[in-house]
Amino acid sequence: MATPPLAQSPIGIPRSRVRQLMAASIGNVVEWFDWYTYSFLTVYFSPQVFPKTDNPLVPVLSAFAIFAVGFFMRPLGGLLVGAFADRYGRKAAMTFTIVLMGGGSLLLAVTPTYTAAGVLAPIVLTLARLIQGLSVGGEFAAATTFLVESAPPGRRGLFSSFQYVSTTIGQLLASGLAALLASSLAEGDMDSYGWRIPFVVGAVISLVGLWIRKGAEETSTVAEEIKKGEVERPRMFEFLVRYPTKAALIVGITVAGTVAYYTWTTFLPTYAQQNVNFDKADSLTVSTIALVFFMILQPLLGMLSDKIGRRPMLITFGLAFTLLPVPLLGMLTNSFASLLLIQCVGMVFLGCFTAISAAVNSELFPTRVRASGAGFPYSLTVAIFGGTAPLIGTALKDAGNSGLFPWYMSALALISTLVYVFALKETKDQPLS
User: Fold this and answer.
1) What's phi and psi for 37, nearest 5 deg?
2) Which residue pairs, CB below 8 angstroms and at least 24 apart, start in 37-40?
3) In terms of DSSP H, where are the helices of 150-219?
4) Torsion over CA: 338, 339, 342, 347 (sign)
5) Domains of the chain, each with CATH number or no CATH
6) Residue 420 has pLDDT above 80, yes or no
7) Above 70 in pLDDT, residue 13?
8) What's the pLDDT score for residue 16?
9) For the whole model, what pTM was predicted?
10) Is the pLDDT assigned to residue 24 strictly greater than 80?
Protein backbone atom coordinates (compact mmCIF):
# COMPACT_ATOMS: atom_id res chain seq x y z
CA MET A 1 0.00 0.00 0.00
CA ALA A 2 1.34 3.42 -0.94
CA THR A 3 2.27 5.79 1.87
CA PRO A 4 -0.16 8.71 1.97
CA PRO A 5 1.45 12.04 1.16
CA LEU A 6 2.13 14.53 3.90
CA ALA A 7 -0.51 17.20 4.29
CA GLN A 8 0.61 20.30 2.44
CA SER A 9 0.11 23.98 3.14
CA PRO A 10 -1.10 26.30 0.36
CA ILE A 11 2.54 27.12 -0.51
CA GLY A 12 3.54 23.47 -0.84
CA ILE A 13 5.29 23.02 2.52
CA PRO A 14 4.31 20.09 4.77
CA ARG A 15 2.07 21.31 7.56
CA SER A 16 4.43 19.92 10.19
CA ARG A 17 7.08 22.28 8.81
CA VAL A 18 4.62 25.17 8.91
CA ARG A 19 4.15 24.51 12.62
CA GLN A 20 7.91 24.75 13.05
CA LEU A 21 7.93 28.04 11.18
CA MET A 22 5.21 29.40 13.46
CA ALA A 23 7.01 28.29 16.61
CA ALA A 24 10.19 30.11 15.68
CA SER A 25 8.54 33.10 14.03
CA ILE A 26 5.89 33.96 16.61
CA GLY A 27 8.38 33.78 19.45
CA ASN A 28 10.72 35.93 17.40
CA VAL A 29 7.95 38.49 16.89
CA VAL A 30 7.70 38.86 20.66
CA GLU A 31 11.46 39.18 21.06
CA TRP A 32 11.80 41.93 18.48
CA PHE A 33 8.66 43.82 19.43
CA ASP A 34 10.19 44.32 22.85
CA TRP A 35 13.63 45.13 21.44
CA TYR A 36 12.49 47.76 18.94
CA THR A 37 9.95 49.44 21.17
CA TYR A 38 12.91 50.93 23.02
CA SER A 39 14.33 52.51 19.88
CA PHE A 40 11.06 53.95 18.61
CA LEU A 41 10.21 55.53 21.97
CA THR A 42 13.67 56.87 22.82
CA VAL A 43 12.74 60.48 22.05
CA TYR A 44 9.86 60.26 24.56
CA PHE A 45 11.34 58.49 27.57
CA SER A 46 14.95 59.73 27.46
CA PRO A 47 14.09 63.17 28.97
CA GLN A 48 12.20 61.37 31.77
CA VAL A 49 14.91 58.86 32.69
CA PHE A 50 18.00 61.07 32.38
CA PRO A 51 18.77 64.44 34.02
CA LYS A 52 17.70 67.52 32.05
CA THR A 53 20.36 69.57 30.22
CA ASP A 54 20.44 72.63 27.99
CA ASN A 55 21.26 70.43 24.98
CA PRO A 56 18.22 68.27 24.07
CA LEU A 57 20.48 65.80 22.24
CA VAL A 58 22.26 64.75 25.45
CA PRO A 59 19.39 62.57 26.86
CA VAL A 60 18.90 61.00 23.41
CA LEU A 61 22.63 60.26 23.20
CA SER A 62 22.47 58.70 26.67
CA ALA A 63 19.52 56.50 25.68
CA PHE A 64 21.26 55.38 22.48
CA ALA A 65 24.40 54.63 24.50
CA ILE A 66 22.33 52.23 26.63
CA PHE A 67 20.84 50.88 23.37
CA ALA A 68 24.44 50.08 22.37
CA VAL A 69 25.18 48.55 25.80
CA GLY A 70 22.28 46.15 25.25
CA PHE A 71 23.90 45.11 22.00
CA PHE A 72 27.13 44.26 23.80
CA MET A 73 25.27 41.62 25.79
CA ARG A 74 24.24 39.97 22.53
CA PRO A 75 27.60 38.20 21.94
CA LEU A 76 27.41 36.76 25.45
CA GLY A 77 23.87 35.59 24.71
CA GLY A 78 24.99 34.14 21.39
CA LEU A 79 27.81 32.27 23.10
CA LEU A 80 26.02 31.01 26.22
CA VAL A 81 22.59 30.31 24.73
CA GLY A 82 24.19 29.01 21.54
CA ALA A 83 26.23 26.50 23.54
CA PHE A 84 23.09 25.61 25.51
CA ALA A 85 21.19 25.04 22.23
CA ASP A 86 23.97 22.82 20.87
CA ARG A 87 24.01 20.72 24.06
CA TYR A 88 20.35 20.59 25.09
CA GLY A 89 18.45 21.44 21.93
CA ARG A 90 17.03 24.46 20.11
CA LYS A 91 13.58 24.24 21.72
CA ALA A 92 14.85 24.52 25.29
CA ALA A 93 17.03 27.48 24.35
CA MET A 94 14.14 29.30 22.65
CA THR A 95 11.96 28.86 25.73
CA PHE A 96 14.67 30.41 27.89
CA THR A 97 15.17 33.44 25.62
CA ILE A 98 11.53 34.43 25.45
CA VAL A 99 11.18 34.32 29.25
CA LEU A 100 14.19 36.61 29.54
CA MET A 101 12.81 39.06 27.00
CA GLY A 102 9.44 39.30 28.74
CA GLY A 103 11.15 40.01 32.05
CA GLY A 104 13.28 42.75 30.51
CA SER A 105 10.23 44.38 28.94
CA LEU A 106 8.36 44.39 32.26
CA LEU A 107 11.35 46.01 33.95
CA LEU A 108 11.40 48.75 31.29
CA ALA A 109 7.69 49.37 31.85
CA VAL A 110 8.25 50.13 35.54
CA THR A 111 11.48 52.14 35.14
CA PRO A 112 11.21 55.18 37.44
CA THR A 113 11.83 58.74 36.26
CA TYR A 114 15.00 60.63 37.16
CA THR A 115 12.93 63.15 39.09
CA ALA A 116 11.47 60.39 41.28
CA ALA A 117 14.47 58.09 41.74
CA GLY A 118 17.57 59.97 40.65
CA VAL A 119 20.44 57.85 39.37
CA LEU A 120 18.45 54.66 40.03
CA ALA A 121 16.34 55.44 36.92
CA PRO A 122 19.14 55.02 34.32
CA ILE A 123 20.48 52.04 36.31
CA VAL A 124 17.13 50.20 36.02
CA LEU A 125 16.96 51.10 32.33
CA THR A 126 20.45 49.73 31.76
CA LEU A 127 19.69 46.49 33.63
CA ALA A 128 16.57 45.92 31.53
CA ARG A 129 18.53 46.41 28.32
CA LEU A 130 21.27 44.03 29.49
CA ILE A 131 18.63 41.34 30.07
CA GLN A 132 17.09 41.96 26.67
CA GLY A 133 20.48 42.00 24.96
CA LEU A 134 21.32 38.59 26.42
CA SER A 135 17.97 37.28 25.24
CA VAL A 136 18.20 38.64 21.69
CA GLY A 137 21.73 37.30 21.20
CA GLY A 138 20.60 33.88 22.34
CA GLU A 139 17.43 34.11 20.25
CA PHE A 140 19.37 34.51 17.03
CA ALA A 141 21.63 31.58 17.85
CA ALA A 142 18.77 29.23 18.66
CA ALA A 143 15.91 30.38 16.42
CA THR A 144 17.86 30.82 13.18
CA THR A 145 19.42 27.36 13.38
CA PHE A 146 15.99 25.97 14.29
CA LEU A 147 14.46 27.62 11.22
CA VAL A 148 17.11 26.41 8.77
CA GLU A 149 17.19 22.88 10.22
CA SER A 150 13.38 22.71 9.88
CA ALA A 151 13.46 23.54 6.15
CA PRO A 152 12.65 20.96 3.43
CA PRO A 153 15.32 20.38 0.75
CA GLY A 154 15.73 23.38 -1.52
CA ARG A 155 13.77 25.69 0.81
CA ARG A 156 16.43 26.86 3.26
CA GLY A 157 16.48 30.35 1.76
CA LEU A 158 12.70 30.62 2.08
CA PHE A 159 12.70 29.39 5.68
CA SER A 160 15.66 31.65 6.46
CA SER A 161 13.69 34.67 5.29
CA PHE A 162 11.16 34.17 8.09
CA GLN A 163 13.81 35.26 10.56
CA TYR A 164 13.38 38.80 9.26
CA VAL A 165 9.69 38.39 8.39
CA SER A 166 9.05 37.76 12.08
CA THR A 167 11.58 40.40 13.14
CA THR A 168 9.82 42.92 10.92
CA ILE A 169 6.37 41.95 12.24
CA GLY A 170 7.65 42.62 15.74
CA GLN A 171 9.14 45.89 14.57
CA LEU A 172 5.90 46.81 12.79
CA LEU A 173 3.89 46.16 15.92
CA ALA A 174 6.31 48.32 17.89
CA SER A 175 6.33 51.07 15.27
CA GLY A 176 2.57 50.92 14.73
CA LEU A 177 1.74 51.04 18.43
CA ALA A 178 4.21 53.89 18.97
CA ALA A 179 2.70 55.80 16.04
CA LEU A 180 -0.83 55.19 17.33
CA LEU A 181 0.05 56.42 20.81
CA ALA A 182 1.95 59.43 19.46
CA SER A 183 -1.00 60.49 17.32
CA SER A 184 -3.73 59.83 19.88
CA LEU A 185 -2.12 61.09 23.09
CA ALA A 186 -1.09 64.63 23.89
CA GLU A 187 2.69 65.06 23.86
CA GLY A 188 2.69 65.63 27.62
CA ASP A 189 0.80 62.38 28.21
CA MET A 190 3.13 60.51 25.84
CA ASP A 191 6.13 61.83 27.75
CA SER A 192 4.71 61.01 31.19
CA TYR A 193 3.10 57.58 30.81
CA GLY A 194 2.30 56.76 27.17
CA TRP A 195 5.77 55.39 26.43
CA ARG A 196 5.32 52.71 29.12
CA ILE A 197 2.26 51.10 27.48
CA PRO A 198 4.12 49.18 24.71
CA PHE A 199 6.53 47.67 27.23
CA VAL A 200 3.57 46.35 29.24
CA VAL A 201 2.11 44.90 26.05
CA GLY A 202 5.45 43.24 25.26
CA ALA A 203 5.59 41.56 28.66
CA VAL A 204 2.06 40.20 28.24
CA ILE A 205 2.49 38.80 24.72
CA SER A 206 5.74 37.10 25.79
CA LEU A 207 3.47 34.61 27.55
CA VAL A 208 1.74 33.89 24.23
CA GLY A 209 5.08 33.22 22.55
CA LEU A 210 6.09 30.91 25.39
CA TRP A 211 2.90 28.87 24.98
CA ILE A 212 3.36 28.53 21.21
CA ARG A 213 6.95 27.38 21.50
CA LYS A 214 5.96 24.52 23.77
CA GLY A 215 4.48 22.81 20.70
CA ALA A 216 7.69 22.90 18.65
CA GLU A 217 9.61 19.77 17.66
CA GLU A 218 13.34 19.52 18.34
CA THR A 219 15.56 19.76 15.24
CA SER A 220 18.99 18.91 16.66
CA THR A 221 19.86 15.21 16.45
CA VAL A 222 23.11 15.93 18.30
CA ALA A 223 21.22 17.07 21.40
CA GLU A 224 19.44 13.71 21.54
CA GLU A 225 22.70 11.81 21.01
CA ILE A 226 24.31 13.76 23.85
CA LYS A 227 21.35 12.95 26.10
CA LYS A 228 21.79 9.24 25.34
CA GLY A 229 25.53 9.43 26.01
CA GLU A 230 26.41 8.52 22.42
CA VAL A 231 28.57 11.59 21.81
CA GLU A 232 30.40 14.10 24.00
CA ARG A 233 28.99 17.54 24.62
CA PRO A 234 30.51 20.25 22.42
CA ARG A 235 32.89 22.51 24.32
CA MET A 236 32.12 26.21 24.77
CA PHE A 237 34.57 27.47 22.13
CA GLU A 238 34.75 24.33 20.01
CA PHE A 239 33.37 26.21 17.00
CA LEU A 240 36.23 28.71 17.23
CA VAL A 241 38.97 26.11 17.76
CA ARG A 242 37.82 23.84 14.93
CA TYR A 243 36.42 26.42 12.50
CA PRO A 244 38.23 29.77 13.03
CA THR A 245 38.09 30.72 9.35
CA LYS A 246 34.33 30.24 9.19
CA ALA A 247 33.83 32.27 12.36
CA ALA A 248 35.88 35.11 10.85
CA LEU A 249 33.92 34.78 7.61
CA ILE A 250 30.63 35.44 9.44
CA VAL A 251 32.10 38.68 10.80
CA GLY A 252 32.97 39.83 7.27
CA ILE A 253 29.58 38.79 5.92
CA THR A 254 27.70 40.64 8.67
CA VAL A 255 29.53 43.99 9.00
CA ALA A 256 27.74 45.78 6.16
CA GLY A 257 24.41 44.07 6.74
CA THR A 258 24.07 45.01 10.39
CA VAL A 259 24.96 48.70 9.90
CA ALA A 260 22.63 48.97 6.90
CA TYR A 261 19.83 47.15 8.73
CA TYR A 262 19.85 49.20 11.92
CA THR A 263 20.26 52.43 9.99
CA TRP A 264 17.52 51.81 7.44
CA THR A 265 14.94 50.12 9.65
CA THR A 266 15.53 51.75 13.04
CA PHE A 267 17.66 54.89 13.02
CA LEU A 268 16.48 56.54 9.78
CA PRO A 269 13.37 58.17 11.35
CA THR A 270 15.54 59.68 14.11
CA TYR A 271 18.18 60.67 11.53
CA ALA A 272 15.47 62.52 9.58
CA GLN A 273 14.26 64.26 12.74
CA GLN A 274 17.78 65.36 13.60
CA ASN A 275 18.94 66.48 10.16
CA VAL A 276 15.90 67.85 8.30
CA ASN A 277 13.52 68.55 11.21
CA PHE A 278 11.15 65.78 10.15
CA ASP A 279 7.97 65.53 12.20
CA LYS A 280 8.17 62.85 14.93
CA ALA A 281 4.76 61.29 14.33
CA ASP A 282 5.14 61.40 10.52
CA SER A 283 8.54 59.70 10.70
CA LEU A 284 7.01 56.80 12.62
CA THR A 285 4.21 56.52 10.04
CA VAL A 286 6.72 56.45 7.16
CA SER A 287 8.74 53.80 8.96
CA THR A 288 5.65 51.65 9.44
CA ILE A 289 4.73 51.78 5.73
CA ALA A 290 8.30 51.00 4.67
CA LEU A 291 8.52 48.06 7.06
CA VAL A 292 5.40 46.47 5.55
CA PHE A 293 7.09 46.68 2.15
CA PHE A 294 10.30 45.24 3.61
CA MET A 295 8.46 42.31 5.21
CA ILE A 296 6.73 41.36 1.95
CA LEU A 297 10.10 41.29 0.17
CA GLN A 298 11.70 38.74 2.53
CA PRO A 299 10.14 35.42 1.38
CA LEU A 300 10.33 36.49 -2.27
CA LEU A 301 14.06 37.15 -1.98
CA GLY A 302 14.54 33.99 0.09
CA MET A 303 12.95 31.89 -2.65
CA LEU A 304 15.06 33.70 -5.25
CA SER A 305 18.23 32.71 -3.36
CA ASP A 306 17.13 29.06 -3.44
CA LYS A 307 17.20 29.32 -7.22
CA ILE A 308 20.19 31.57 -8.03
CA GLY A 309 22.32 31.11 -4.90
CA ARG A 310 23.42 33.13 -1.88
CA ARG A 311 26.51 34.86 -3.35
CA PRO A 312 24.72 36.81 -6.13
CA MET A 313 22.26 38.16 -3.57
CA LEU A 314 24.96 39.26 -1.15
CA ILE A 315 27.10 40.83 -3.88
CA THR A 316 24.08 42.83 -5.09
CA PHE A 317 23.44 44.05 -1.55
CA GLY A 318 27.10 44.93 -0.96
CA LEU A 319 27.53 46.92 -4.17
CA ALA A 320 24.28 48.83 -3.58
CA PHE A 321 25.23 49.90 -0.06
CA THR A 322 28.72 50.82 -1.17
CA LEU A 323 27.37 53.21 -3.80
CA LEU A 324 23.95 54.44 -2.60
CA PRO A 325 24.02 55.72 1.03
CA VAL A 326 25.72 59.05 0.23
CA PRO A 327 23.39 60.09 -2.63
CA LEU A 328 20.26 58.66 -0.98
CA LEU A 329 20.74 60.36 2.39
CA GLY A 330 21.84 63.51 0.57
CA MET A 331 18.41 63.62 -1.09
CA LEU A 332 16.55 63.53 2.23
CA THR A 333 14.15 66.41 2.91
CA ASN A 334 11.33 66.96 5.40
CA SER A 335 8.86 65.74 2.77
CA PHE A 336 6.85 62.61 3.63
CA ALA A 337 7.40 61.21 0.12
CA SER A 338 11.16 61.85 0.30
CA LEU A 339 11.71 59.76 3.42
CA LEU A 340 9.39 56.99 2.23
CA LEU A 341 11.12 56.70 -1.16
CA ILE A 342 14.62 56.67 0.33
CA GLN A 343 13.67 54.09 2.95
CA CYS A 344 11.96 51.76 0.44
CA VAL A 345 14.78 51.95 -2.15
CA GLY A 346 17.33 50.99 0.50
CA MET A 347 15.14 48.16 1.75
CA VAL A 348 14.99 46.51 -1.68
CA PHE A 349 18.75 45.97 -1.59
CA LEU A 350 18.90 45.38 2.17
CA GLY A 351 16.50 42.46 1.70
CA CYS A 352 19.13 40.70 -0.40
CA PHE A 353 21.09 40.35 2.85
CA THR A 354 18.41 39.91 5.49
CA ALA A 355 16.39 37.25 3.63
CA ILE A 356 19.32 34.83 3.56
CA SER A 357 21.44 35.79 6.55
CA ALA A 358 20.23 32.88 8.69
CA ALA A 359 20.76 30.37 5.88
CA VAL A 360 24.26 31.59 5.01
CA ASN A 361 25.43 31.53 8.62
CA SER A 362 23.88 28.14 9.42
CA GLU A 363 25.19 26.51 6.24
CA LEU A 364 28.76 27.24 7.28
CA PHE A 365 28.76 25.04 10.42
CA PRO A 366 27.91 21.40 11.25
CA THR A 367 24.96 20.65 13.56
CA ARG A 368 27.20 19.96 16.55
CA VAL A 369 28.31 23.60 16.88
CA ARG A 370 25.87 25.37 14.55
CA ALA A 371 24.04 27.50 17.12
CA SER A 372 27.15 28.77 18.90
CA GLY A 373 29.22 28.94 15.71
CA ALA A 374 26.67 31.06 13.90
CA GLY A 375 25.37 32.93 16.95
CA PHE A 376 28.51 34.26 18.64
CA PRO A 377 30.44 35.86 15.73
CA TYR A 378 27.23 37.25 14.27
CA SER A 379 26.11 38.78 17.57
CA LEU A 380 29.60 40.16 18.25
CA THR A 381 29.61 41.91 14.88
CA VAL A 382 26.10 43.27 15.40
CA ALA A 383 27.14 44.61 18.81
CA ILE A 384 30.22 46.41 17.50
CA PHE A 385 28.76 47.83 14.30
CA GLY A 386 24.94 47.56 14.36
CA GLY A 387 24.35 48.57 17.95
CA THR A 388 26.58 51.62 17.64
CA ALA A 389 25.12 52.91 14.35
CA PRO A 390 22.47 55.18 15.98
CA LEU A 391 25.03 56.39 18.54
CA ILE A 392 27.62 57.20 15.85
CA GLY A 393 25.03 58.92 13.66
CA THR A 394 23.76 61.04 16.56
CA ALA A 395 27.28 61.86 17.78
CA LEU A 396 28.34 62.99 14.28
CA LYS A 397 25.27 65.24 14.16
CA ASP A 398 26.13 66.68 17.57
CA ALA A 399 29.68 67.39 16.32
CA GLY A 400 28.35 69.09 13.19
CA ASN A 401 29.55 66.31 10.84
CA SER A 402 26.34 64.43 10.05
CA GLY A 403 27.40 64.18 6.39
CA LEU A 404 30.12 61.69 7.37
CA PHE A 405 27.67 59.02 8.48
CA PRO A 406 26.67 57.76 4.98
CA TRP A 407 30.36 57.57 4.05
CA TYR A 408 30.91 55.41 7.13
CA MET A 409 28.18 53.05 5.93
CA SER A 410 29.66 52.87 2.43
CA ALA A 411 33.15 52.06 3.73
CA LEU A 412 31.87 49.11 5.76
CA ALA A 413 29.76 47.90 2.84
CA LEU A 414 32.85 47.86 0.65
CA ILE A 415 34.64 45.60 3.16
CA SER A 416 31.79 43.08 3.14
CA THR A 417 31.50 43.21 -0.64
CA LEU A 418 35.13 42.13 -0.94
CA VAL A 419 34.35 39.22 1.39
CA TYR A 420 31.36 38.17 -0.72
CA VAL A 421 33.36 38.28 -3.94
CA PHE A 422 36.67 36.75 -2.87
CA ALA A 423 36.11 34.66 0.29
CA LEU A 424 32.57 33.26 0.27
CA LYS A 425 31.72 30.02 -1.52
CA GLU A 426 28.22 29.15 -2.69
CA THR A 427 26.38 27.07 -0.06
CA LYS A 428 22.78 26.75 -1.27
CA ASP A 429 23.20 23.19 -2.62
CA GLN A 430 25.32 21.87 0.22
CA PRO A 431 23.47 19.48 2.58
CA LEU A 432 23.39 20.42 6.26
CA SER A 433 25.93 18.13 7.91
Assistant:
1) -55, -40
2) 37/105, 37/108, 37/174, 37/177, 37/178, 37/198, 37/199, 37/202, 38/67, 38/70, 38/108, 38/129, 38/132, 39/67, 39/266, 39/267, 39/390, 40/174, 40/175, 40/178, 40/269, 40/284, 40/287
3) 156-184, 187-192, 197-213
4) negative
5) 16-422 (1.20.1250.20)
6) yes
7) no
8) 66
9) 0.84
10) yes
